[in-house]
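Dear colleagues,

For the upcoming journal club I promised to circulate an example of a predicted protein-ligand complex. I picked one with iron/sulfur cluster because it came up in last month's discussion. The inputs are reproduced below in full, followed by the predicted structure.
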Amino acid sequence: MTEATYAYYPGCSGLGTSIEYDSSSRAVCRALFMKISDVPDWSCCGSTPAHTVDHVLSAALSARNLALVESMGLDTVVTPCPSCLTNLRTACHRMEDAAFSAEVNALLDTPFKGTVQAKSLLQALIEDVGLEMIAASTVKPLTGLKVAPYYGCIMNRPPELMRFDDHENPVAMDRILEAMGAEVVPFPLKVECCGASFGVPRKDVVAKLSGRLLETARELGADAMVTACPLCQMNLDLRQEQASRAVGTHFEMPVFYFTQLMGLAMGVAEAELGFDKICVSPARALSLIGSPASKPEGRKATSGGQA
Amino acid sequence: MDGVNLNASYDAGFVEQVQQESGQNMSLCYQCGNCTAGCPYTFVYDIPVSQIMRLVQAGQKRRVLECASLWLCATCESCTTRCPNEIDVARVMDVLRHMSRRQGFAARRPVKVFWDTFLESVRRHGRVFEAGLLASYVTKTGRVWTDMDLAPRILPKGKLKLKPHPIQGREEMEKIFKRFEARGGRS
Ligand code: SF4
Ligand code: SF4
């Protein structure tokens, strides 16, 4: 029924707080000829709250979507969101157990047969499309921009479940950004938690954990942080002033989604990349990006005083 | 920490139940402390995660199910990834939360109330309705929205949608929750 290679699961935040991640992801897929098709009438995977209630309930909320992917005749679903990914993968994995699977399917109208795998968009980009193709698609290199890629805690962990990249020092985003001309700093807190979903009930916790990430990125001289997770981006960007107060400083660190920078490098129209949705203005960081001809040394003079 | 008379309060059934529900062998934990060392939330925990593991081994049901740490664990998977004995520590934390919920130990924890409100939103609309979730959390906790400073940052971005995105399969979602409840939680 569809020409698509992948089913696409945007996740709830893709409709709201991470709308620019969603639109830039779609734009990048299109530019790279990755054929995606939305899971029809997809529902929330239950995120963290569901698995803190019960593992069968949590798996059922994911499995409803996995069964929909089966109905599309596809065997791989990609999602930009690591939290959705964890839930989808956990459900697939645990449902290999027949007894568990029966319990889950008993909650559903349409049972999940188990023929689907879930991948992050990042994984599909690097493993299926490949770095060469990504590099070749670069028309406006990110030369002159120094970035700290931040993966968040669950994109690669636990390794037995996620089976992608390195669980202590993931490099997928580093490689993509480098291939597109950016300078990548060796960011040591790549997989440290930003405070996750505690923003509302315990913003003190988020301020402290995100503050540490922002501080480290700044100390390394990064012009921007780059994320692959809606929650990470929101904590670091929207709550940056709260983090500033917690650490007793003033951060001004733009926080991009990696797909926004990819899209930019591939010449996607900026309207689709949603830079205007970022709270901390990315204008200065974007102005550092030179044409292919401009040499990286040029940036020192313009970026000056960021201690 | 208060003293605990381990013999008097040892609950063998509790240890057994944690092992069975989590599929982990609790006796493998030799208290190396790796999980606690990597846990980003130790600074707000009342009991560090390795000590929770120890208290489970020691059958200290009440201490464990009452502790605040269970509601501050973000499931960041650092402990699970770094445990030398391959214990899925984060899964144990999850299972302890399940037990704590079922046995009514944590009704008023703000984090729990937030998570419950989130799931109600999913149940009602099929997808999370962020603005509605926030409003209903504030109503339930009687806390004023402590994030007033964020309003001028996020509202002009048009990202906080003021209407839900209901799905067609709303009844199907309701049935998932109903069937789950009818089953009375985990069998
Ligand atoms: S890392 Fe594993 S063995 Fe070490 S204290 Fe934690 S649970 Fe026990
Ligand atoms: S999963 Fe929970 S207990 Fe384990 S390290 Fe992360 S926050 Fe700490």
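Two points we might discuss: Chain B has a mean pLDDT of 89. Chain B touches chain A through 60 residues (CB under 8 Å).

See you all on Thursday,
B. R.
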